[in-house]
């Protein structure tokens, strides 16, 4: 692998056949948005791709949780033109196409909301950083031109980019990106946790999330591979409860990694799969893998490296670029393999035990599951209290509460927080400083308030009266009211005023 710089962008390249595969990677993704701006990175990606001339080049782009990548395969000169075109488009976004591309995003509808991964990250971080993957957000129609341009100016700059190239490097390649350093990423704070917890959420599968220190600890990586293999043996082969087991590692910082293991389950048997997942994890924490399991994991890694040499080369180049934009240490694949070969059961067990205080076990919301038992406590998706705080209290009418259990709710607008008691008696609270967004309905008769702590409240005139809606409108910080989405005939994108009752998606 060769490392050079082109126009201030690090380039990781290796020779190869006549055709070139290259990818321009930016260290920005969903984790760098807010609830109000979900899809802004994706929209920037669409606008840049939409600015390119029509061609037969095999090219595409993808926006992930922590990166955005533009890639192409073809003749070197065509790939070079693609990369330069993307850079020029990012430097001056064709925002006149915004309405069209918003429509494309709505049609694409590829949000990661309600995935098991998203549910796990939200259980760790709430509605911020990777936790945003659990939400759809208000929709790309809420994004303004200035929001989109500001996002591009901050994140799509040369200091936040890296390029990898397999095959001939395009002659005279230029990467005319806007100048700028890598932005400082928000490091989301994890919810306080002193031991393993389990939770119910919107994800369809069963999952386990572990937090570790060093981003490249091979002992933990091997442990997760053995854990997955045990689950395949038990959940799928022995009991026919599951089809696939997968894992994903997300580097929050250079010294903090979140590792998720996700298992699908036969409908109605999610509780059994959760039990098998937790049992396999705790057994590995206690005694580690067998020598045979370690040898099987290493043999699988070796087989993967031998199967497709070009794929391995491209994967290593991509990893180098990812590490460059993320400020992470890079380890060549052969070094990783040697570390796997030197692994011991004791080291794997110690690495997994170190994650136990951070473990989060997830099951789908509707599953009848009592949890693994002590010492694993249940964690609610959002902040739940026993009683309503002090403040101005609103309730449906006494007659309505008498005949409808669902109407036995209450809302409190207090000095420090907005709280509501649901029909089950649980009290959900959103401190005013944690309000992430407020969306008035189109008729102005209700407001949806969303908190970064995963709590939300629908404050509507029908249940709580006009005074309740007005009280919330008076308390929510002005900056949290979402801009009114552009509609046909509008000359301007205005701001949703609490008093105006302007259009918004509920």
Short description:
With 506 residues, the protein is α+β, with helices and mostly antiparallel strands.
Could you explain the architecture of this structure?
The protein is α+β, with helices and mostly antiparallel strands and 506 residues long. It has 14 helices and 20 strands. It has helices at residues 40-50, 76-91, 98-108, 116-125, 145-155, 218-238, 270-287, 291-307, 309-326, 333-341, 345-355, 398-403, 461-464, 466-475; strands spanning 2-6, 9-14, 20-26, 58-63, 68-74, 161-166, 197-201, 206-212, 245-253, 256-263, 360-364, 377-378, 384-385, 392-394, 410-413, 417-421, 427-431, 435-440, 446-451, 456-460. Helix 1 (40-50) packs across helix 2 (76-91) and helix 1 crosses helix 5. The protein is flat, with a radius of gyration of 25 Å. Residues 488-506 have low confidence and may be disordered.
